[in-house]
Amino acid sequence: MFEFLNQQEVIKTIVTIGSMVLFFVGLFGLLTRKHIIKIFISIAIMESSIFLLFIGLTFNTDFIAPILDNTHVNVSNMNDPVPHAMLLTAIVIGMAVLALGVSFAIEYFKLTGKTDINEMNEMKH
Amino acid sequence: MSSILFIALPLLFGFATPILSKFGKNGVAYTSMLMQMFLLYLAIDLVSTTSSYVEIISIAPPLGISFVLNSASLFFVTIFTFLITLFSLYYLTHRKTDAYENETKFFILLNMLLASSIGLVLSSDIFNIYVFFEIAGISAYILSAYKKTPSALEAGLKYLLTGAVASVFLVFAIALIYINVGSLNLAVISQSFEALPYNIKVLISILLLIGFGFKVEIFPLNFWVTDVYQGSSALVNALFSGIIVKAYLFVFFHILYLFLPSGEFSVFLVYLGAVSMLVAEIVGLKQTNLKRLFAYSSLGQVALIFTAFAMQNKEGIQAALFIVLAHSIAKFIIFLALTSIQGEHKSIHIETLKELNSPFLRAIMLIAMFSLLGIPLFAGFVGKFLALKSFAVEGMFVILMIIVISSLIESVYYFKLSGYMFSKGKKREVLNIGSTQKIVFVLLAFLLIFIGIAPFMISNFLGDSANILLDAKSYSDMLGGV
What is the model's pTM? Predict the structure, then answer.
């Protein structure tokens, strides 16, 4: 019944629409939320949506994993490994930045007790 | 094999710092400075011995990492290594009185910053650019929040938030580029980018502009800059304003020239830069905190560089490179001087300048301000003059007007500052500056005057760099064979 879902075009359309919805959910959160941790979560959602889009559009379900060994020497039916390698790096970097941000937020909270981004105005006085 | 050293040595040093610190307290500070001096020597050696130098370091295709060192990137590498060496020299004296806590970490961050700024400039692979973009960002966030006071942490948080958002947009752009072009190499992308469908091209350009716009401090994405400068210590601000912004500016326009050699969006970017400059200077007028005031001045100058780069012709780029040099040196002087003043007076309010009792610092700061203002016989004048000339030649008189008006507004607060510095009244005790620090200041000020008097000494080199930057075709031919 759901076999039509296996077609490349359908998968790519679903991935594109889904990840764009996620992206705008993240963007909405980034612009409207005031709690610093929620803002970080919104950024994480935006990032994930980009990763999803990238993998979804470059991945072909008919192809196999790009691992070269004695039995698999034909490269033409393998998926492109570059996006995967790239995204692993990007995910790690994104994680590191968010962890650093949360650690700043915790230190800041310990000193001032504030979590609202609008109340962060040490510079004004 | 020399260009790989510019990235490898500082990276290696950064990672080796924890081991080096076992050999004593001063070991890291001195070895780090020696390493930077060696890099400076390499850079100056390359500048002086070869007229138009091109070196490609390429690691075989499966990895496909390549770095390109030509006149344009060599110019930036020389500025970065020169400034960071002087920074380390200054810090050697500074650390005796006001050292950072956990100095080892500070040196790791400093060298990471150097490695990533040079990496941004040399890289010819858009994903490597993203990685260096993030390394530079992370080191800058930590340096900004280093003191762990509420305002420093707030500055770090704001810097990190905007940086994280910027990197999301950059990854988006890179993903779209890879999906449409099928390569990450700048040379390959450059060959097929202009032929892409118009909608995709505009979308990618907008995403890149947003991603880099946060980092090159362009209006309206520069709301965070002044808070970050005010919250961070003045010492670190010198690095932000002198090195990091310049690296981002270079890489943004490098990518722009390669992707869109015909300059489709050039006029839009020129107006964007001019408006940014006007806004920055107008808002800067009312500031009373010195760090914040010079942050606005930085915004204005960076916007001027942006405008000149966006002209996308040889004269404009040459002017931009002159302003890059003059602005980096002048802002280094200003922020290092502010560090000395803050260390003594414990305040950075504009009134502090009235009590400043150090003829040496006053003279040095005045030279830097004159250069920023663009008074003849100082380096800033050459850049501003060339920029105005290139606008006039292109017939962009609206831009010319905006730049002149912004410069006039800028002059108001510089004259106000110099009025404060030379006002009569109660003075503090004499501010002591170490002899090493004096050498640093004098060297920087001398360079400003030297370039102002003899711009012809470097104008050929800069013209050459501008030509190389503009020549997308030979860049892709050169890398295409590898």
Answer: 0.92
